[in-house]
Automatic annotation (TrEMBL), chain A:
InterPro entries in alphabetical order: Rad28/ERCC8/Ckn1/ATCSA-1, WD40/YVTN_repeat-like_dom_sf, WD40_PAC1, WD40_repeat_CS, WD40_repeat_dom_sf, WD40_rpt
Recorded superkingdom: Eukaryota
GO-annotated cellular components: chromosome; Cul4A-RING E3 ubiquitin ligase complex; nuclear matrix; nucleotide-excision repair complex
Name of the coding gene: ercc8
Keyword terms, alphabetized: Chromosome, DNA damage, DNA repair, Nucleus, Phosphoprotein, Repeat, Ubl conjugation pathway, WD repeat
A Pfam family the protein falls into: WD40
Subcellular location: Chromosome; Nucleus matrix
CDD domains: WD40
Pathway(s) it belongs to: Protein modification; protein ubiquitination
Summary of the function given for this chain in its UniProt record: Substrate-recognition component of the CSA complex, a DCX (DDB1-CUL4-X-box) E3 ubiquitin-protein ligase complex, involved in transcription-coupled nucleotide excision repair (TC-NER), a process during which RNA polymerase II-blocking lesions are rapidly removed from the transcribed strand of active genes. Following recruitment to lesion-stalled RNA polymerase II (Pol II), the CSA complex mediates ubiquitination of Pol II subunit POLR2A/RPB1 at 'Lys-1268', a critical TC-NER checkpoint, governing RNA Pol II stability and initiating DNA damage excision by TFIIH recruitment.
Leader sequence segment: none
Species: Pundamilia nyererei
Subunit organization: Part of the CSA complex (also named DCX(ERCC8) complex), a DCX E3 ubiquitin-protein ligase complex containing ERCC8, RBX1, DDB1 and CUL4A; the CSA complex interacts with RNA polymerase II; upon UV irradiation it interacts with the COP9 signalosome and preferentially with the hyperphosphorylated form of RNA polymerase II. Interacts with ERCC6/CSB (via CIM motif); promoting recruitment to lesion-stalled RNA polymerase II (Pol II). Interacts with KIAA1530/UVSSA. Interacts with a subunit of RNA polymerase II TFIIH.
Protein name: DNA excision repair protein ERCC-8
Automatic annotation (TrEMBL), chain B:
GO biological process, one term: positive regulation of Ras protein signal transduction
Alphabetical UniProt keywords: Kinase, Transferase
Family of the protein in this entry: Belongs to the STK19 family.
Name listed for the protein in its UniProt record: Serine/threonine-protein kinase 19
Signal peptide segment: none
Origin species: Pundamilia nyererei
PANTHER family given in the database record: SERINE/THREONINE-PROTEIN KINASE 19, SERINE_THREONINE-PROTEIN KINASE 19
Superkingdom of origin: Eukaryota
Classification of source organism: Eukaryota, Metazoa, Chordata, Craniata, Vertebrata
GO terms, molecular function: kinase activity
Amino acid sequence: MLGFLTARRAGLDDPLRLRRAESTRRVLGLQLNPDRDVDRIHGNGINTIDIEAVEGRYMLSGGADGVIVIYDLENFSGKLQYTCKAVCTVGRSSRYVHKFSVETVQWYPYDTGMFVSSSFDKTMKVWDTETLKPAEVFQFEGNVYCHHLSPIARKHSLIAVGTTNPKIQLCDLKSGSRIHILQGHRAEVLSVRWSPRYEHILATASADSKVKVWDVRRASGSLFTLDQHNGDKSKASSEAVNTAHNGRVNGLCFTGDGLYLLTSGTDDRMRLWNSATGENTLVNYGKVCNESRKRLQFTVSRGCSPEFVFVPCGSSVAVYTLHTGELVTMLRGHYNSVDCCEFHPDYQEVYSGGKDCNILAWVPVLRPSDVEEDSDHEVKGAAGQSSVNPAFQDAWSSDED
Amino acid sequence: MSRKRALISDAFNLKKRRNGTEQFGATAAEDGPADIKSSLEYLMTLFPRKLFNDALPQIVLKHQLYSIHSDKTLVDKEVNKMRERGDLLMFQLGFDAEAFGLVFTSDYKAKVLVGEEGKTTRATVERFLEKVVSACTDLSFTKDKMLKEFLFTDSEITQLVKSGVLTVRDAGSWWLSIPNSGKFTKYFIKGRKAVLSMVKKSKYGEVLKAEIEERRTNSQVKFHMKYHIHDIVGAELVESIPTTSGTLLRSVDS
C-alpha cells in the first residue's frame, strides 16, 4: 500500500491506480460489522433493494408484504455505532400500498424525488417520494417480475417491464403510454436490464432458458440470443435452440462499464458474456446454488481491479472474482435465504436482504486504528466523552508535594 | 513481458502463505499448465483397467480435475488446448449434461482397434479414426457433415454405430463415444451414489477425506475410492472444507 502512495505522490502512477488499489483492498476486507445496522421495519422477507445513484445516501427496499421503506445510509452522528434509520415507509396502512409482494424497486436515476415499484399485484407504481403517493399506476395482466429504468438514458424515459407474459412491455414515463412491445420469448420474463453503456440496448432473461439482447429502436426482433456453447453445436444436448442456461435464467447484471453481462440460472451456473458480441467467455465459476423461482438480484463491484461479483447463494453471499471465476469468500450472516444484494460504490459496502427480514450491511474492516489516533478522535469528537486513554492519564498520586 | 510495476491484484494476497512448504490439511497443487497433464495421468492410474478386462481405455472426467486444481477456468483452457493439439479426446457421457469424459487419443485408438480385431466393420472404423478423430475436435456429428465432409455412406455410418464408436443422439446426429462404455457408466453411477450415501450417513453428514479413502468399498463401489472422491468433489456434490486434520467432505443438503 505504501508503494502505491509514494508512486502517486511522485507522479509515477496514475491517480486512478491508487483509488483502485484501495477499493480492492476494502472489498477484500468485507465483514459483518457489529457497529453498522439497518433498521428493521419489514415484517416479511425483503425482495429487493436499490441504492440511489446520485449521492448514494438513500436506500429503497421492497418486501414480501408489499411494504416499501426508504433508509438513510449516511452516518452523521460521529459515533462508530450507527443504525441506518428508516426515513419513511409506505406501510400496510397507506391507501396506495401494493396488495401483494413488491418484486422490484428502483430509484429514478436522476434524483430521489421519484421511485418506481412493481409487484405481484399486477401493477407498477411510480411514486412521488415527498407525498408517498403514486403519480402513475400501470396495470398488467400478469404478475410483474421485474422492471428497469435505464440509468443513462437521455433520449428516452422507457421502463422495461417483465411479467408472466412472454412479451416485454416498454412503458414511457413521460407520456404514460405502453404501446411498445418486444416479442421473442416463449415463457415468462424473469429479469430485464438496460445496458449502462448504450441507452438503447436492453437485455432480457426468461424462464425458457434464453437471454435476448435488444435494441429498442429496431422494429424487428432481438439483436441476438446468447448461446452458452458459442455455436459449438456438438456440446448441446439438443441441436435446435440457443440457450444461455440449462434451466430458467433468473438473474442478469451488467458490469459497471457495460462491456460484460453476467447471467445466472437455475442450472446452478453463472456465466459471463461479452455484451457486444454475445460470446460466452467460458469463465467457470463452479456451482452457484440457485433455487429461486423469481428474479435473483446480484451485483458487481465498481472501481476495483479485479472486479468482484456478489451473488446470493443460499443463506450467504458468495464473492467471486469476475474474470477468473475464483471464489474469494462467502459472506455468512443471514438466517435464511438471501434474495438480493447491492453494492455501494463510494464506500465499498454491500447491503443484502433476505427472507429473514434483515438487511445486513457488510462493511470493509481494515486494521484497527492506533491508540493515539483513537484518543485524538475522542477529544475532538462529542464533548462529554469522559473516557480518556489510560496512557495519557496522570499516573502519579497528588499526595506528594 | 516483464512488468515494471506489479499488478494491483498481486498486492493483495488472498491467502496468507506460510513459510513452510507443507500446509496443514488440504494440499493445493499450484503451478500451471504442465501440472494439468500430470494430474490427468495420475487420475488415469486410478481407473481400474482389470474391471473391464482391459477393453476400455482409461477414462477420466473433466470435473475430477477441478478437485485437484483450484482455478477452473485455467483447467478448462488447458484441456481445450490439449484437445486442439490432438492429444486428448472429450466425450459427452450422457448421464449428465455437464459430465465430460477425457481419454488420451493414443489410448482410445489403440483400444478401439484391438476391439475391432476380426470384425467386418474394422476397415470403416479405421478410416473413421484416421479421418475424423484426428482431424476434428467435435463431440458430435450431424448427418450432413458425415456425408459431405467426411464422405461416409449411410451403410458405413450404420457400421460405425454398430461398432460403438458413434452413439445416436437425435435423428441425423451422433455423439462420439467409447465402445463398450455402457458398463463404465453403470458402475460409475452406482459407485457415485454409494459414496455419496456413505458421506451422508456418517455422523453429522461429514467425513474426513483421508478416512473415507481408507474405508472398505462395499459391493456397489467398483472403482478406486479416490476416483469417486475426486469426482464428487469436482462436481461439487459435496463441500470440501480445509481443516487442521485434513480436508473434510460435508454433504450438501439440496
